[in-house]
Amino acid sequence: MNLPSDLKYTKDHEWIKIEGNIATVGITDFAQGELGDIVYVDVDTLDDTVEEGEIFGSVEAVKTVSDLFMPLTGEVIEFNTELEDDPELVNSNPYDKGWMIKIEISDPSQIENLLDAEAYKELITA
Fold first, then answer.
1. Rounded distance between C-alpha atoms, residue 90 and residue 41, angstroms
2. Which domains does the chain have, with CATH numbers?
3. How far is the C-alpha of 43 from the C-alpha of 100, rounded, in Å?
4. Between 20 and 30 A from 88 (CA), which of 14, 54, 67, 99?
């Protein structure tokens, strides 16, 4: 299982890469493996400010649909448009080309609530 140590994670199986006040968000290798083949990523919150814990979109796999939860309060400033034509990037490359959104972080103190790679690994192997 691939868990890059330079990322943060949530209990909802999302990863977050923080660069200044911009966070890139996707789902973890574990999550994509549990969901199976991703066929569609739906994000309709572009340019909206979404509160931490609220739904910012959904991911559809062959057998299920799963909500995507905002890891940090902020404005959704970018959607990975490559996923419109190639949603399986979430399966093949979840931490790089399979990213979903970028957000402008409103409350940097919320970063402290995120899990590091070791804590996330404990969560999924418990």
1. 9
2. 13-125 (2.40.50.100)
3. 8
4. 54
Please write down the HEC assignment for all residues of 18-70: EECCEEEEEECHHHHHHHCCEEEEECCCCCCEECCCCEEEEEEECCCEEEEEC
Instruction: Name which of 35, 101, 98, 97 is nearest 72 in CA terms.
Output: 101
Burial class for 6, CB neighbours closer than 10 Å (0-12, 13-18, 19+): exposed
Q: Read off the pLDDT band of 115 (50, 70, 90).
A: very high
Residue 65 and residue 69: Cα distance in Å, rounded?
Answer: 13
pTM of the model: 0.96
Q: Please answer whether residues 25 and 31 qualify as being in contact, where contact means their C-beta atoms are separated by less than 8 angstroms.
A: no
Spatial contact of 103 and 72, defined as CB atoms under 8 Å apart: yes
Alpha carbon distance 6, 24 (integer Å): 12
pLDDT 10s digits, 22-54: 999 999 999 999 999 999 999 999 999 999 999
Q: Find how far residue 37's CA is from the centre of its chain.
A: 16
